[in-house]
Design goal:
The chain contains five helices and no strands. By secondary structure, it is mainly alpha-helical. It has one domain. The two termini are 30 Å apart.
Length: 89
């Protein structure tokens, strides 16, 4: 599967006005996209380079509620079943 990539350029004035460094800006952008239900936790973890767990911690720091619905539950249950099946074999 071929992925699409986008390079986002911000001039120094914009960057300095935020008071954030590159990593912090990336986290803020991903957090807002997640909050608006534009990306998943997994995508946010990838986008920030933090991984799912640390990205979820960043969401918590910002008091952003995790979106968790029935399809997410089914996906997690399937993952757990696969993991435990692999451990038994």
């Amino acid at each position: 599967m071929t992925g699409r990539y986008m390079l986002l350029e911000l001039n120094d004035n914009v960057i300095s006005s935020t008071g954030l460094n590159e990593d912090e800006l990336r986290i803020e952008l991903a957090a807002r996209l997640y909050e608006d239900e534009k990306i998943t936790v997994a995508q946010g973890g990838t986008m920030t380079g933090l991984g799912r767990i640390k990205f979820q911690q960043e969401l918590g720091k910002r008091r952003i509620v995790c979106h968790y619905d029935v399809p997410d539950l089914h996906a997690d249950l399937e993952t757990l079943n696969t993991l435990f099946r692999d451990r038994r074999n």
